Structures
1.
Amino acid sequence: MRTNESSEMYLESILVLSRKQSGVRSIDVAHETGYSKPSVSRAMGLLRQRGMITFSETGEIRLTDDGMKLASKILERHETLTAALVSLGVPQDRAQEDACRIEHVISDESMDCIRAAMYHKK
């Protein structure tokens, strides 16, 4: 399934929030991302239609298996790219911001090479 950067960012935010707290709601995603509640609500509806999330009876957002797979992939890319940039001397804040942009467009092949350089040559 093709996703866009926005969908990936929402899924990543849901995963990050779910690791920090129990019960993620749309308002939590809005606070985490800085997007308006209506924008988040619309995005959550689209993600639900695409089978990436579900809602519990109490309104909590849960990642489906497909949603978790993609969110985990994006978060791992973010963490690896941040670490790579920091290891090159980029300040942490800048590395995080740049990794957030790069993680959505970098090819799997390039990510594999970065992972190999970061973790297998130590």
Note: Strands lie at 53-55, 61-63.
2.
Amino acid sequence: MTSRISPSNIVKLLGMMRPQKPASLQKMRVGDEGAGGYVLPDDLEGLSAVVSIGVGDNVSFDRHFATRGIQVYQYDHTIEQLPAAHANFHFHRMGWAAENSTSMVSLAQILAD
């Protein structure tokens, strides 16, 4: 038996998905405002690694962390190589999928590695 989610519950869930102000943290923009930009809590203390899935041709997000000494593990099966290099970049020409295969890797495997 499979359970079915009602349309009203989906609408209710979507209504709860909106930007929230963190209680004690400011927000910061990481990466270019275009394809590489994201808004995150301004708290990198204790962060030693970042996983970047779907790098493409913009590594501004990744570079933000790498220049701060944080290791960046990058996964993208759609590009042959990174558009820019950094000593803290660790590129894997693999895609992200639910299960491992020859060209894809699961999030569970990424985190285990």
Note: The chain has three helices and seven strands.
3.
Amino acid sequence: MSELLARIEPTPTVPFAGNGVTVTSAPPMARFSLRARKAADLEKLLGVSVPQKIGTMQSGVMCLGPDEWLMLAPDGTKIADGAGLSLAVTEVSDRNVAILLEGPRAASVLAAGCALDFDHFEVGRATRTIFETVEIIVVREAAERFHVEVWRSFAPWLWTAFVTVAAE
């Protein structure tokens, strides 16, 4: 019976495009929730510098809180468990998916359900916030491009909300 089970992606594979915005499902990727008292421990584990200012992103790692980071990496990436270091590594690749908003109206589509001022949201900024009632993480990747992380179970609803606003 289990051989008949197949994972169904929660968002369409065909992008929505219209009215100055494109809504696209991001390709699969690895995601790791990282907790540490000292950023130096994470840097030792990962072998790269990590951002230490909340709301910034560097080398695929975003700082979400004083001791919390989220790392995005190519699909299939594995990292050590951090044994011997004062930190916690949890792979959340199956929990999250990402939706990409791109185009001149991308910021206004996000602003329709989120109180943040996306006109002043700098490229490279990353933050956890709420779109209506759904927790999301928003990364501004370029002037007209946003990467939105959301839990897999909320992705169909968020996709529909983005497309509904974009179609208006």
Note: The chain has two domains: 17-27+94-167, 29-91.
4.
Amino acid sequence: MERVLIVDDDQEDLDAMQAILEKNGYGVITATDGAQALDALVGDGFGLILLDIQMPTLSGYDLLRLLREKINHHAKMVYVSIVPEKEVDLNDADGFIQKPFSPEDFLEGIKKALAK
């Protein structure tokens, strides 16, 4: 089972992503900020980390840089954001999923990132 860490400060979005992933057989851990995400890295690794870009204190960009330093490329990292893709710095990210999303589009983005 692929383990996924979702980091998003919007509880509604977090719940929606978790429900879609669990329904499709993924193991999910959630975090509402960067500090929780870093704490969650203890123990077994994740195959995929989903990051919101706009979060208080630590943005998705900053968190991606910290996670890359900590675990390098041992996990795929994908931004899930309301920010239009053309405005997103995708440097070192493994993908992008636009909010709002349908369950189908969300899963397609997940599968595409994991196939890279």
Note: The longest helix spans residues 11-23.
